[in-house]
Amino acid sequence: EPEVTQTPSHQVTQMGQEVILRCVPISNHLYFYWYRQILGQKVEFLVSFYNNEISEKSEIFDDQFSVERPDGSNFTLKIRSTKLEDSAMYFCASRGDGNLKNIQYFGAGTRLSVL
Amino acid sequence: DQQVKQNSPSLSVQEGRISILNCDYTNSMFDYFLWYKKYPAEGPTFLISISSIKDKNEDGRFTVFLNKSAKHLSLHIVPSQPGDSAVYFCAASGRHQGGSEKLVFGKGTKLTVNP
User: What is the model's pLDDT at position B98?
Assistant: First the structure.
């Protein structure tokens, strides 16, 4: 069964460093998303991406964040200068079109720890 | 901003009995509702969904009921099995400008099914 793949599973970084979280969405999907979950809190929307551009972003997604689809398979989230409060689980999701267009499929997540 | 609320942080049921998980929402623009199941160290796994034009959707042991006038939905699991023990998230989406259809999540309910 196709799945969303995220790497790494755990990323530890120093405050102020840049991190890139990687995702391989399901191959025929067209819409891509990043969400995050701070420990003990809700899963929160960060950004959606379609047709090589951001279609919507939340207040959390400030200038320190960027997304890119550098090739036909990868979808990345970059945090330029990490802060302690960026520590969270980051989930990538994708969805297709047609009958299942409303269903987003999630990866296993990347745990980001900012020290 | 709690547009999607799951007021029960936890639920414990006996194997073979019915589990009922509840979810309330406030935003009338939501038109699609999903339930996700999450095990520790994994991403949310899609379980079942319902469109706002329906009031019930069934898939095997899982049934979702939607009461639009009360802005309430529930997930029924019958019969409950120990393998169903997980955190269950209610999520909602609505048509946004640009078609992002981001998901708004509740805080989750931790279900424990006792043998």
Answer: 52
Going by their DSSP bridges, the two strands B109-114 and B86-94 should be labelled as antiparallel
**Is residue B57 packed enough to be buried (19+ CB in 10 Å), middle (13-18) or exposed (0-12)?**
middle
Q: Residue A76's CB: how many other CB atoms inside 10 A? A: 15
Listed as ranges, residues in chain A with pLDDT below 50 are: none
Per residue in B18-60, pLDDT (tens digit) is 999 999 999 888 999 999 999 988 899 999 999 999 999 999 9
In chain A, what residues touch B33 (CB-CB under 8 Å)?
Answer: none
With cut-offs at 50, 70 and 90, classify the pLDDT of residue B99: low
For chain B, say whether A103 makes contact (Cβ under 8 Å): yes
**SS3 category, A98:** helix
| Contact between B43 and A107 using a beta-carbon 8 Å cutoff | yes
